[in-house]
Design goal:
Elements: H1 6-15, E1 21-28, H2 31-40, E2 47-54, E3 72-80, H3 91-107, E4 112-114, E5 118-121, E6 124-136, E7 139-150, H4 177-194, H5 203-212, E8 220-225, E9 228-237, E10 243-246, E11 251-254, E12 258-260
Parallel strand pairs: 1-2
Antiparallel strand pairs: 2-3, 3-7, 4-5, 5-6, 6-7, 8-9, 8-12, 9-10, 10-11
Helix pairs in contact: 1-4, 3-4
The protein binds biotin.
């Protein structure tokens, strides 16, 4: 197995011209929690926190994220927000695009994005994304983009065994986890820092890509919100990254919650 540590990450960061302050940890409770602590200590700008394993990896809706040693990549990239962002809500979707692009360019995998941001390969979830804000003086000052990606084949808990998968299920070659992290962050930094996508630039272009790679648009879905569930047809991705759904009564844009695709 290839090296996965601070040195190997710094080497790739140099190759990719990534301007990041890298922290590598063999084990941490959650890279998102660690990155948020850095932010609250004033050390968040440009931080990239990467771990070989997490003892309390967190997913959306209070779920945990399986984060075994030597099995995946678990990392959090911090972006400083100016307060002028018109499209901050696009961040989770952009992270999904960045992961998709990286898996295609490194391993030729054709992944799809289950709204809002699970990355699937042949219907199996390889990756989850959890974005969190850190507030300062009453406004969001930092966005922490947490990405967990299953790399090696592994035994998932029973409840995930039918839905979860790993890159190695679909790619036979050797996987260099440092290269993988650098490639994903490279794509995400390109969208967020270089193309200033959170300022609302080229939103149509990104939503067209999100629609093209969507695993959700065109399907009948069950929409799950904190206090309700309903059936709908997913028909489009809105410019803010929301999912446009048509229920029996109305057409609306979902910006929160999640959907399941009944089989
Ligand atoms: C989900 O599938 O609901 C989202 C999972 C996000 C997991 C990643 S792993 C790195 C970062 N640290 C965490 O605690 N969670 C995210």
């Amino acid at each position: 197995m290839r090296e996965f540590n601070e040195k190997s990450l710094i080497r790739y960061a140099k190759d990719y011209f990534l301007k990041r302050r890298i922290t590598f940890l063999n084990e941490v409770n959650s890279t998102n929690t660690y990155a948020k602590t850095l932010c609250s200590q004033g050390k968040g700008a440009g931080a990239l926190v990467v771990a070989d394993s997490q003892t309390a990896g967190r997913g959306r809706r209070g779920r945990s994220f399986v984060s075994n040693p030597d099995a995946g990549v678990y990392f959090s990239a911090v972006y400083t927000l100016s307060g002028e962002e018109k499209a901050a809500g696009l961040l989770t979707s952009l992270a999904g695009l960045a992961v998709r692009d990286a898996l295609y360019s490194l391993y030729n995998l054709q992944c799809t994005i289950k709204w809002p941001n699970d990355i699937l390969c042949e219907g199996k979830k390889l990756c989850g994304i959890l974005c969190e804000a850190v507030n300062e003086n009453g406004r969001a000052k930092y966005a922490v983009v947490g990405i967990g990606l299953n790399v090696q084949k592994q035994d998932f808990p029973d409840e995930l065994s039918l839905t979860a998968g790993s890159i190695a299920d679909f790619y036979d070659g050797e996987i260099d986890r440092s290269e993988l992290v650098a490639e994903i962050v490279f794509h995400l930094d390109r969208l967020v820092l270089k193309r200033r996508a959170l300022m609302g630039h080229d939103a149509h272009e990104y939503t067209a890509l999100l629609k093209k790679y969507s695993d959700t648009v065109g399907k009948q879905v069950k929409v799950i919100l904190p206090d309700s569930e309903e059936y709908a047809e997913a028909i489009d991705i809105a410019d803010n990254g929301g999912l446009v759904v048509k229920t029996m009564y109305e057409t609306k844009v979902l910006t929160a919650g999640e959907v399941v695709h009944p089989r």
